[in-house]
Automatic annotation (TrEMBL):
The lineage of its organism: Eukaryota, Metazoa, Chordata, Craniata, Vertebrata. It comes from Cyprinus carpio carpio. One of its GO terms (molecular function) is GTP binding. This is small monomeric GTPase. PANTHER family: RAS-LIKE FAMILY MEMBER 11. Gene3D superfamilies: P-loop containing nucleotide triphosphate hydrolases (3.40.50.300).
């Protein structure tokens, strides 16, 4: 069975927990209280392959024994870096995180022959009337840093499906099979409209 470790990173309140909970429960839960960092585990079968997914949701609040961002980045095989399209500062944080991931995973102890998979996610697309980050900016960052890019909404009623952007260069590159599964897995997670309740 393939083990896949995914860290969901980003500023406080961008919707990391909402996205994870939606994936795990297929529901949007508006006020999901998390006061400590968590690892969620899930077994999945994709195209007949069994995957053991570990999803890491850091707590944005300082708490005892909290791991550092560097430790979180070293732990993970892949990343979902989330910002809120209605909050520019969260985009700047996402940018810094993506830069750091690329830096640490190139020069770090993990020997890698290819890039780690990073999904850059502009969440809260339902708040586009309050948009502070253009879709093009997200797309540009994604293409500069070799990420897959999505704008989406963890909130329930938003109807437009996410559009993968800037993925052409990525499609040409080869990834190790675990990362490939993860990409597929996360596509499965974030790439489909989910029914709300
Ligand atoms: N409108 C809208 N609100 C959202 C969306 N996703 C999350 N929220 C709301 O944003 C707030 C923060 O969501 P969380 O999932 O707790 O965000 P987080 O990034 O996990 O926050 P921390 O755990 O504090 O880092 C909550 O009130 C959610 O209901 C979305 O797609 N659209």
């Amino acid at each position: 069975m393939n083990d896949i470790k995914v860290a969901v990173l980003g500023s406080e309140g961008v919707g990391k927990s909402a996205l994870i909970v939606r994936f795990l429960t297929r529901r949007f839960i508006g006020e999901y209280a998390s006061s400590s960092e968590c690892i969620y585990r899930k077994h999945m079968s994709i195209d007949g392959r069994q995957l053991h997914l570990e999803l890491y949701d850091p707590c944005s609040q300082p708490c005892e024994g909290k791991s550092t961002l560097n430790e979180q980045i070293h732990w993970a095989d892949g990343f979902v870096v989330v910002y809120d399209i209605s909050d520019r500062s969260s985009f700047l944080t996402a940018k810094a995180i993506v830069h750091l991931i690329r830096e640490l995973h190139l020069g770090g102890s993990k020997s890698r022959d290819t890039d780690s998979v990073i999904f850059l996610v502009g969440n809260k697309q339902d708040l586009c009337h309050m948009r502070e980050v253009d879709r093009e900016e997200g797309q540009k960052l994604a293409s500069e840093r070799r990420c897959q890019f999505y704008e989406l909404s963890a909130a329930e009623h938003y109807q437009e499906g996410p559009k993968p952007l800037g993925g052409k260069a990525k499609e040409r590159r080869r990834r190790p099979s675990g990362s490939k599964s993860m990409a597929k897995l996360i596509n499965n997670v974030f790439g489909k409209r989910r029914k709300s309740v």
